[in-house]
Design goal:
The complex is a heterodimer. By secondary structure, chain A is α/β, with parallel strands linked by helices. In chain A, strands 2-1-4-5-6-7 form a 6-stranded antiparallel sheet. Chain A is about 45% helix and about 25% strand. Chain B folds into 2 domains: about 50 residues, RecR Domain 1 (Helicase, Ruva Protein, domain 3, Orthogonal Bundle); about 100 residues, Dna Topoisomerase Vi A Subunit, Chain: A, domain 2 (3-Layer(aba) Sandwich). In chain B, helix 7 links the parallel strand 5 and strand 6. Classes of the chains: A alpha/beta, B alpha/beta.
């Protein structure tokens, strides 16, 4: 799947921008605050109906304007037009797929898969365990809607159970304990299903990760993700282990009225040569790992979904030495279509560009082809 | 603009009903205002009759005109098979299928700590008494396949674990006459787990 063209009206700095894209690499160059990342944001809007940075629609509208509009044409086996219109007076967003209106983000999510590599990705390797779970959950959810459904049910179970725990804390009745044991059973059932999915995913994804890592970094370093549940148990005993841990931490859970056991507490350890990245990794290793995760995600989704996602890379070359920048631009050729912003125009000479690739200059919301 | 007090009161009352928002409430109130008086009387009588002429069955808690509902009174129903459901609307749905000839027990909800539903808020005590005092062989748990329904089914299954009851829960899977290719992944996944041997 490729994005053929895009049209922006009153979208942040872009008053009226029309762009035709290459099916291969699209480099978007320009200084800070000129509207490069905004183009990625607009593409992300077309794929998900939401902002890449999580900004509300009202903030995306150009200052003083009454609406914004983003439209684009995707081409796969057939071509699809997506249009999103936001009326800032009414605070209302209208979304259209091939001129047919749809009302929920689910109307397009998953249809036009998208993978992003942005500055905020540093949280995945450097941040909290929750950031790593979020990454893993989002990749599996994109490949499997069944996983997403179980995840939603599981989160509901967590809310119900923690509320019940707080009720028990206030009022220690045996009837509530009987209910708790039923909620435990649901927790273990849904939770174990998540754990099985995650185990299967990590096993597959590690291959994609180490492949991508070696392409970005010519070295003998071996990256891997370890899943905390995996080290302690074998696949047939997940439920058993789950129940054991629950009874082990029962008193703690009741005292604090918090769910302490389950996949929402599990940790993914990112390793390089069997040493934990978070504790021992250099800045460069962190950056390389983040890049390899997103490339891994891209190729994993390509195999899982049978089509290529759009790959958006925001200022990936900024922090890299010329050697790795060159390797990444080489590796990008295997991706198909990608959109890459960069501040430092001089680096563009180092990129291994071919005739089909496109280079654009963005300045003050105006785009010119170079 | 100040809305006349009787109209505002009608809007506020209609607004309390599920799925009725402010605008719909206003539209309904104005419609009723414009209707013939006899039609409004018929409507209010129909609504009142719900409270005066109907009650809940003493045995199964289904909607009933008498102390015992038509299904519990019937001699043609198999009293040894008991189907546990969440709400009276589920009884209506199952009855329409004509597939079930046993009797029902309406729980009046499912376990949900967040909505303040515990075991004491559901018709569980009366279910236990029914199982103890009448000749029930089989318990079918026909609860919704969501987190709360599943948990309630598990709770009941454990509660009656030591009785001689044959306990089952209704199957989940593909809709009849449906196309496999249009079913969602989760449903297909469950249908595989709950596959049935072909004789």
């Amino acid at each position: 799947m490729v994005l053929k063209s895009i049209k922006l009206s009153n979208f942040r700095l872009h008053k009226d921008t029309k762009l035709e894209f290459s099916d291969n690499l699209n480099y978007i160059a320009g200084g800070n605050g000129q509207g490069k990342t905004t183009i990625l944001e607009a593409i992300y809007y077309l794929c998900t109906s939401r902002s890449l940075s999580g900004s509300p629609d009202s903030e995306v509208t150009s200052f003083g304007c009454e609406f914004f509009e983003v439209g684009g044409t995707f081409s796969d086996l057939a071509s699809n037009d997506v249009r999103i219109y936001y009326d800032s007076n009414a605070g209302k967003k209208s979304m259209f797929l091939d001129d047919k209106q749809f009302y929920r983000a689910s109307g397009i999510i998953g249809r036009f898969p998208v993978v992003t590599l942005v500055q905020e990705d540093h949280a995945i390797t450097m941040g909290s365990p929750g950031d790593r779970r979020k990454f893993v959950d989002s990749v599996i959810s994109q490949a499997s809607s069944a996983y997403l459904k179980i995840l939603i049910e599981y989160n509901k179970t967590l809310r119900q159970r923690s509320f019940l725990l707080s009720q028990i804390k206030e009022n220690n009745s045996p009837k509530l304990f009987n209910q708790l044991s039923a909620w435990n059973a649901t927790l273990v059932k849904n939770g174990s299903e998540l754990i099985r999915h995650r185990l299967a995913f990590i096993e597959r994804f590690n291959e994609y990760l180490s492949n991508s890592y070696s392409r970005v970094m010519e070295s003998k370093e071996i990256p891997a993700i370890h899943y905390s549940f995996h080290d302690e148990t074998d696949k047939d005993k997940i439920e058993e282990t789950f129940y054991d841990k629950l009874s082990e931490l029962k008193d703690d859970e009741l005292r604090r009225a918090v769910n302490l056991v389950g996949p929402h507490r599990d940790e993914f350890y990112f390793m390089i040569n069997d040493r934990e990245l978070r504790k021992y990794g250099s800045q460069g290793q962190h950056k390389t790992f983040q890049i390899a995760l997103r490339f891994g995600e891209f190729f994993f989704l390509k195999d899982a979904l049978g089509k290529s996602a759009l790959f958006l890379l925001d200022d990936v070359f900024g922090e890299l030495d010329t050697f790795r920048a060159g390797r990444i631009s080489e590796y990008l050729k295997e991706v198909g279509q990608a959109f890459i912003t960069m501040t430092d125009f001089s680096k563009s000479e180092l990129l291994k560009r071919t005739g089909e690739d496109l280079l654009m200059n963005v300045s003050g919301g105006n785009v010119s082809y170079a | 603009m100040q809305i006349a007090e009787p109209l505002q009161r009608a809007i506020d009352e209609l607004n309390k009903l599920p799925t009725i928002g402010r605008k719909t409430a206003l539209r309904l109130a104005l419609y009723i205002l414009k209707s013939k008086e006899e039609n409004v009387t018929t409507l209010t009588n129909a609504l009142l009759a719900l409270k005066t002429d109907l009650r809940f069955c003493n045995t199964c808690h289904n909607i009933s005109i008498d102390e015992e509902c038509e299904i519990c009174k019937s001699t043609r129903r198999d009293k040894s098979v008991l189907c546990v459901v969440e709400e009276p609307s589920d009884v209506i749905a199952i009855e329409k299928s004509n597939e079930f000839n046993g009797v029902y027990h309406v729980l009046g909800g499912v376990l949900s700590p967040l909505s303040g539903k515990g075991t004491d808020d559901l018709n569980i005590d009366s279910l236990v008494k029914r199982v103890e005092h009448s000749d029930i062989r089989e318990l079918i748990l026909a609860l919704n396949p969501d987190t709360e329904g599943e948990t309630t089914a598990l709770y009941l299954a454990r509660l009656f674990k030591n009785s001689n009851l044959n306990i089952s829960r209704i199957a989940r899977g593909l809709p009849v006459g449906g196309d496999l290719e249009f079913a969602d992944q989760a449903t297909i996944g469950r249908a595989f787990i709950g596959r049935i041997k072909v004789e």
